[in-house]
Amino acid sequence: MITLGIESTAHTLGLGVMDGKKPLANIIRTYIPPEGEGIHPRKAADHHASEFVPALSSALKAANISMNDVELISFAQGPGIGATLRLGVVMAKYLSASTGIPIIGVNHGYAHAKISEMFSGLERPLYLYVSGGNTQIMQEHEWRMEVLGETLDIGMGNLFDTFARGIGIKRAHGAELSRLAIGGNYVKLPYTVKGLNLAFSGLLTSAQSLAKTHPHKDVAYSMMETAFSMACEACERALFLSGKKSLVVCGGGAQNRRLQGMLASMCAEDGVRFGAAPDEFNRDNGAMIAYAGEILYEKFGTIPIEKWGAIQDFRTDMVQEVVKKRQGR
Ligand code: MG
Hints:
Elements: E1 2-7, E2 12-19, E3 22-30, H1 41-63, E4 72-78, H2 82-99, E5 103-107, H3 108-120, E6 126-130, E7 135-141, E8 144-150, H4 156-166, H5 174-181, E9 193-194, E10 197-198, H6 201-210, H7 216-242, E11 246-250, H8 257-270, E12 273-276, H9 279-282, H10 286-300, H11 319-326
Bound molecules: magnesium ion (MG).
Magnesium ion is lined by residues 108, 112, 131, 251-252, 284.
């Protein structure tokens, strides 16, 4: 099945095409806010609106297909920023209405998990989902995701971005912070794991105040090491409790090589297999939305266009609820 996937939950507009498990195109256009600013919802939505048609053309061209070849249109239903999310939903609905191609909405976190599972080749793994707004440990049951543990406050990505912005890093995100952290020395910071859950706000506050007196390099290094260690501990506990024999890390934060390395060595010690997708598919992207759309469409079918809408606070473990509601059960 050839599926067009539309991602627009936050700063990234993604137009991807999948043919079953084969990626045919994955066009990514990211809104970059002015230096030192976070994402402005309307400006990000304006960016996606003006990039949509060129990105769609590029995706169809890269996949060497036309709209007539598309059999399913899949869009990210949430969670996300209202303005950008709705833009994607409107575009998906317009395309579906004007072509008659069926449409399906998918959960963004579910899509991250499923595409990474596909690339890792590991079946039914435990998932660690790490992104700006999310840090969740999940397992999938027959047709739903269960969140075993998660951050009790901010996502790991937000921890890094907020700290980076505070110390004046211009393009404030995890990758820049990782570059700064190279060769840093460890200083002790709060470490908060509660069972399978994590909390990062105490770590952020302490790192911010430590940065006033300590070299930024040392604080950045220590904050990242602490956050990654916390994630490892919670994952290791979840692996033992769930009896899972494999772990897949997914989401934007999964691109971090230090995090990947720490998880991989923890898994190796425990005799657990570890996997991650290529970076392009860990970033927010349209291919993962297409892939997850195909899975859900084959499992549950779909509903008429007018019944679809954005769900801004769409939790990964609400997938079941939403499917049931849409089937009128
Ligand atoms: Mg994401």
